[in-house]
Amino acid sequence: GAWTACRGPEHPRRHAAGSLEVDTPSPVGRPTPQLPFLHRSFRRGRLIARLERELDGRILLLAAGPGYGKSACLADLARAVGARAVWCRLDRSHRDPVRLATAIVQAATGEAGSPPDGGDLPGLARWCRGALEQDRTGPRTLLVLDDLHHVDDDPHAADLVRRLADESPEGTTLCLATRRRPRFSTAHWRAEGRLV
Predict the structure, then answer these.
(1) Mean of the per-residue pLDDT values of the chain
(2) Can you list the positions of beta strands (E) in 34-184?
């Protein structure tokens, strides 16, 4: 599938799972299209097959400690289904919803663009939706928010994530990778049968 990636301004890090993050030149620069690079590959056939069956209209939540292969699993899933992956590795700077939305738009389009005037959450969510609808190379898109634990305790960032889950374009699956259960409530997603 087609890959786009973004991350915050700090230096690249190497993780125990073997992924090397892509260094991009700040939230305003053009991101480097690249998926997580894996030194080792583990077979996750049954898990990938199950996740593939659950994709449509669902929210995937992978919660585990560092080095358990969350990013690698999502990369394998995107390859298996031929999905366009819009990949954002988050850091604490993305607690600002304008920065978070800008990162998503940059990952989706290759350009940071200008956030809507006022930076209100409904407007930011619409901006992200419009970006996700651009440059679609197939029927399926995975929006990956990696390292969600850096932002999930901020109420504004959490609200934007919830809006993205509820307002993303058809064919888009929100994938959340985190080191713990999200600090915001996911009960309504679970009650609606949307959370995997």
Answers:
(1) 76
(2) 37-38, 59-63, 84-89, 141-146, 172-178
